[in-house]
Automatic annotation (TrEMBL):
<dbReference type="GO" id="GO:0008234">
    <property type="term" value="F:cysteine-type peptidase activity"/>
</dbReference>
<keyword id="KW-0645">Protease</keyword>
<dbReference type="InterPro" id="IPR000064">
    <property type="entry name" value="NLP_P60_dom"/>
</dbReference>
<keyword id="KW-0788">Thiol protease</keyword>
<feature type="domain" description="NlpC/P60">
    <location>
        <begin position="53"/>
        <end position="175"/>
    </location>
</feature>
<keyword id="KW-0449">Lipoprotein</keyword>
<keyword id="KW-0732">Signal</keyword>
<keyword id="KW-0378">Hydrolase</keyword>
<dbReference type="Pfam" id="PF00877">
    <property type="entry name" value="NLPC_P60"/>
</dbReference>
<dbReference type="GO" id="GO:0006508">
    <property type="term" value="P:proteolysis"/>
</dbReference>
<protein>
    <submittedName>
        <fullName>Lipoprotein Spr/probable lipoprotein NlpC</fullName>
    </submittedName>
</protein>
<comment type="similarity">
    <text>Belongs to the peptidase C40 family.</text>
</comment>
<dbReference type="InterPro" id="IPR052062">
    <property type="entry name" value="Murein_DD/LD_carboxypeptidase"/>
</dbReference>
<dbReference type="InterPro" id="IPR038765">
    <property type="entry name" value="Papain-like_cys_pep_sf"/>
</dbReference>
Length: 175
């Protein structure tokens, strides 16, 4: 009888410890199941949406192939490219259009369009350094364009940002 009395407290403590251990394991595993989501209104997700909504799959492939290539003034290859060089290459390869090599001259061959009327592949021109055109990008859709940023290389950006709106001087399609 003495042996039975000693087992009862042992079983009680064992069951309590096992239940406590199960509770800890459940608590710790539940922390790992929390889902983290990216806000759908972030700049990156909107740029990704613009890329996903491209009608031209060759354009999509061209941009993804060049994304991240660094900026190099006068450059015309994947070792570095400037904005007008990128627009020159894109328009030639995707649309079969031969543009002048310099952004200021590219602006001269574009038929002006209101920014709200732009279509995929149209050009957007900026003047960061005064009155003359000194930067060009290619319009995608939903207010996004692709260009060779001097600091970030080939990127997709939001043309509705104030920094771009202040310096946008012309937009349109090639004549």
């Amino acid at each position: 009888m003495q042996l039975t009395l000693n087992l009862i407290p042992f079983n009680f403590h064992l069951k309590r410890n096992i239940l406590f251990l199960i509770a800890i394991i459940f608590f710790l595993s539940s922390c790992g199941t929390r889902k983290y989501t990216v806000k759908s209104d972030t700049k990156a997700s909107k740029a990704a949406d613009a890329m996903a909504n491209l009608q031209s799959k060759p354009l999509y492939r061209f941009i993804t192939d060049w994304t991240g290539v660094r900026y190099r003034f006068g450059g015309l290859d994947k070792n570095g490219v400037d904005c007008s060089g990128f627009a020159f290459l894109l328009e030639k390869e995707i649309y079969g259009v031969t543009l002048p090599r310099i952004s200021r001259e590219q602006a001269n061959v574009v038929k002006r369009k209101n920014i709200d009327s732009l279509k995929e592949g149209d050009l957007v021109f900026f003047s960061f350094g005064g009155n003359d055109v000194d930067h060009v990008g290619v319009y995608l859709n939903n207010g996004f364009f692709v260009h060779a940023s001097t600091t970030r290389g080939i990127v997709v950006d939001d043309i509705t940002l104030p920094a771009y709106q202040k310096v946008l001087v012309k937009s349109g399609s090639v004549n």
